[in-house]
Design goal:
binds nicotinamide-adenine-dinucleotide, Aldehyde Dehydrogenase, Chain A, domain 2, Aldehyde Dehydrogenase, Chain A, domain 1, 19 helices, six-stranded mixed beta sheet, alpha/beta, 3 domains
Length: 559
C-alpha cells in the first residue's frame, strides 16, 4: 500500500468532544462522557484517541509513532524520492490531478470528518479547507513547471567574455511537514502538493488533535496512484515531531505556535536543517473614517469568528476611527446576534465548538483579564452552557487597551476587541505595537490611501478591504514577520522553499586562461588596478580602456 499508516487505525463512530489523550495519560477526564473515560483507561500503549469537541464522542485511535518508526518512514521516503524526482512535471501533475478528482468526489465525507475532528461548521470545512485545497492542487499541478523553469541570469560584462549563468531548481529530497489542528486539511495538504510537485518526498506529522484528516489525505493520494514511500504519515504528538526533525530530513515546514516554533528552529539548527516557520498572529484590522461601515463590520465579524477565531490570521484586534465607532459597533453587534452556534455538522451552524478545551480556557483567561482591567463585554463573554461541548460564543469587547493580554497575546478564539483611534498615524502605531506580524487589514474607500497605509503596517500580508482569506490564494506568498515566523509557503516563493537553486556557470571560450589566474607580475598588478577602477563600474565603455592590457595578458608567452 502506497501510503503507510504506521500500524492501525480504528475509526470510531463519529459522535462527540475534540480532545485527545494517550492511553495511560488521561487528560480532561472530568469533561468526557463515561464511555470516553473507559477508553482512556485502556492499557494499550502509545496510541492517540481523538474526540469530537462538539459532542465528546470518540472518533478514532491512531498510533503514536516511535522515533524508530519515524526514522523508518524517512528512510522509505528517501528511497522513493529519486525516482519521483526523475519524472517530468507533467507526470507528477497527473497524480496530483487524480488525487484532486478523488478529493472532489469525497467533498462531503471529507468535510464531515474535518467538522467532527475540529468542531468547525461543515460549510467552513468546505469553503475554507476543501475549496482552497482543490484550487491549490490545480494551480501547482498546472503551473509548477513554469514557476520552476531554469532561469538565465544576466551576468553583465562577464557575459561578454563568453560566459553564461543559469539557475536550475532541484528538489531538496525529503520534506518534513509538521502541522497544527486548526486547518487540518488545507495547511498540510497544500504543502504536500507543493513538495510533491517540486519533486520531493514528504513525511507528514499532523497535529495529535486531527490525525484522522491527515490519514484521509494519505488515503486519497494512495488511491490516486502516488508511488509508495512518497507520502509517509507519522501520527503522534510533539515527541513524534521532534523525532522527525532528528531523523534529518532535508527541510522542515512547520506550522504552529511561537513557543513550539522556537523549539523546532533550535532542534533543526543542530542538523543545519532549513526551516520554514508559520507561526501565530495577533492580526489588526484598521477601519478608517471613509470605510464602507456595513461591509467592514461584516468583515470584522467573519474575520474574528470564522473557525471560532482559531485561525492564525483571525482578526484579533480591531481599531476603528472614533467618528464611525458607534455606527460600526452597532453593525458588528447586529451581525453577531444573527450567528447560530451549534455542532459543526449542522449545515446552518455559523459557529461551531472550539477544537479543544485548552484553547477554550485561554480564551476565558484573556476575557477575564480584560474585564478585570476595565474592558466592557458587549456580546458573549461566557462559555456557552446550553451546549455540552467546548463552545464559546462570539464575543465583542470595548474599552480595551494594550495593557491587556487580549490585545497582546494570541487569543485564538471568537473574541473581537474594538478600540478607537483619532489619526492615521495613531492607527499605524497601534497596529504595529505587537510582537506578531502575520496579516493585517485596512478598510477605506480610498484605495490609494489604503495601499499607502498598508505599506506602513508590519505584517507578511496586508489587505485593503479584505480579511483573513489570502491563505486560500495559491498564487500569493503566505508567511509572517517578527514572531509570526519566517519563510513562505504558497506561490513561487513557497515553491522556492522546497528546492535548492543550482547555479550552472559555463565558459564557452575554453582555450584561454582567465585574466585573474596566475602569474602575477607588475603588468597584472596594473591591470587589476584598472579592473577595480573601470570594470567594477559596470560600464563597458570604461572597461574598454583596459582592452590592450587584457589582450597583452591573454597572449603573454607561457612557460
Ligand atoms: P503547536 O505548536 O502546539 O503544535 C503544532 C505542531 O507541532 C503539532 O503537530 C505538534 O504535535 C507539533 N509539535 C509540538 N511540539 C513539538 C516539538 N518539540 N518538535 C516538533 N513538533 C512539535 O500548535 P497548535 O496548537 O497545533 O496550533 C495553533 C498555532 O498554530 C497557533 O499559534 C496558530 O496561530 C498557529 N498557526 C499558524 C499558521 C500560519 O500559517 N502562520 C497557520 C495555522 C496555525
Amino acid at each position: 500500500m502506497l501510503f503507510r499508516v504506521i500500524s492501525w487505525i480504528v475509526l470510531g463512530d463519529f459522535l462527540f468532544s475534540a480532545t485527545l489523550s494517550y492511553a495511560g495519560q488521561p487528560a480532561m477526564l472530568d469533561n468526557l462522557p463515561a464511555m470516553s473515560k473507559q477508553v482512556l483507561q485502556t492499557e494499550r500503549p502509545r496510541e492517540i484517541v481523538t474526540y469530537d469537541p462538539g459532542t465528546g464522542a470518540e472518533l478514532g485511535r491512531v498510533p503514536l509513532a516511535s522515533p524508530e518508526e519515524v526514522v523508518e518512514a524517512v528512510r522509505r521516503a528517501a528511497a522513493a524520492q529519486p525516482a519521483w524526482a526523475s519524472l517530468s512535471f507533467k507526470e507528477r501533475a497527473g497524480v496530483i490531478l487524480k488525487a484532486r478528482e478523488i478529493m472532489l468526489g469525497q467533498t462531503e465525507e471529507l468535510a464531515t470528518l474535518i467538522s467532527r475532528e475540529t468542531g468547525k461548521p461543515i460549510s467552513e470545512a468546505i469553503s475554507m479547507e476543501v475549496v482552497p485545497t482543490l484550487d491549490t492542487m490545480h494551480y501547482f499541478a498546472t503551473h509548477t513547471a513554469k514557476l520552476l523553469r531554469p532561469q538565465k541570469i544576466d551576468i553583465g560584462q562577464y557575459g561578454l567574455m563568453g560566459r553564461s549563468s543559469r539557475i536550475a531548481y532541484k528538489p531538496m529530497g525529503v520534506v518534513g511537514i509538521i502541522s497544527p489542528w486548526n486547518f487540518p486539511l488545507a495547511t498540510p495538504a497544500d504543502e504536500v502538493v507543493m513538495a510533491l510537485m517540486s519533486g520531493n518526498a514528504v513525511v507528514l506529522k499532523p497535529s495529535e488533535l486531527t490525525p484522522l484528516t491527515a490519514l484521509k489525505i494519505g488515503e486519497i493520494f494512495s488511491r490516486a496512484g502516488l508511488p509508495e514511500g512518497l507520502l509517509e504519515i507519522v501520527t503522534g504528538d510533539g515527541s513524534t515531531g521532534a523525532a522527525l526533525i532528528d531523523a534529518r530530513v532535508d527541510k522542515i515546514m512547520f506550522t504552529g505556535s511561537v513557543a513550539t516554533g522556537k523549539r523546532v528552529a533550535e532542534a533543526a539548527a543542530k542538523h543545519l536543517t532549513p526551516v520554514v516557520l508559520e507561526l501565530g498572529g495577533k492580526d489588526p484590522m484598521v477601519v478608517l473614517e471613509d470605510a464602507n461601515v456595513d461591509n467592514a463590520a461584516r468583515g470584522a465579524v467573519w474575520g474574528a469568528f470564522a473557525n471560532s477565531g482559531q485561525a492564525c490570521a483571525s482578526v484579533e484586534r480591531c481599531y476603528v476611527h472614533e467618528s464611525i465607532a458607534p455606527q460600526f459597533l452597532a453593525r458588528v453587534l447586529a451581525e453577531t446576534q444573527t450567528l447560530r452556534q451549534d455542532v459543526g455538522i449542522n449545515e446552518d451552524t455559523d459557529i461551531g465548538a472550539m477544537s479543544n478545551e485548552r484553547q477554550l480556557r485561554i480564551v476565558e483567561q484573556h476575557v477575564a483579564d480584560a474585564v478585570e482591567r476595565g474592558a466592557k463585554v458587549v456580546a458573549g463573554g461566557k462559555r456557552t452552557d446550553n451546549l455540552s461541548g467546548f463552545f464559546y460564543p462570539p464575543t465583542v469587547l470595548t474599552n480595551v487597551d494594550h495593557g491587556m493580554t487580549i490585545m497582546r497575546d494570541e487569543t485564538f478564539g471568537p473574541v473581537l476587541p474594538v478600540m478607537t483611534f483619532k489619526t492615521e498615524d495613531e492607527a499605524v502605531r497601534l497596529a504595529n505595537d505587537s510582537v506578531f506580524g502575520l496579516t493585517a487589514s485596512v478598510w477605506t474607500k480610498d484605495i490609494a490611501r489604503g495601499q499607502r497605509l498598508a505599506e506602513r503596517i508590519e505584517a507578511g500580508t496586508v489587505m485593503v478591504n479584505e480579511v483573513l482569506y489570502t491563505h486560500g490564494i495559491a498564487q500569493t506568498p503566505w508567511g509572517g514577520i517578527k514572531d509570526s515566523g519566517y519563510g513562505r509557503t504558497h506561490g513561487r516563493m513557497g515553491l522556492l522553499e522546497l528546492v535548492t537553486p543550482r547555479h550552472i556557470h559555463v565558459n564557452r571560450i575554453s582555450g584561454f586562461p582567465d585574466l585573474w589566474w596566475f602569474r602575477y607580475d607588475p603588468a597584472a598588478h596594473k591591470l587589476f588596478r584598472g579592473l577595480a577602477t573601470y570594470f567594477t563600474t559596470g560600464s563597458i565603455i570604461r572597461t574598454a580602456r583596459l582592452l590592450p592590457q587584457m589582450i597583452r595578458r591573454l597572449f603573454a608567452p607561457r612557460v
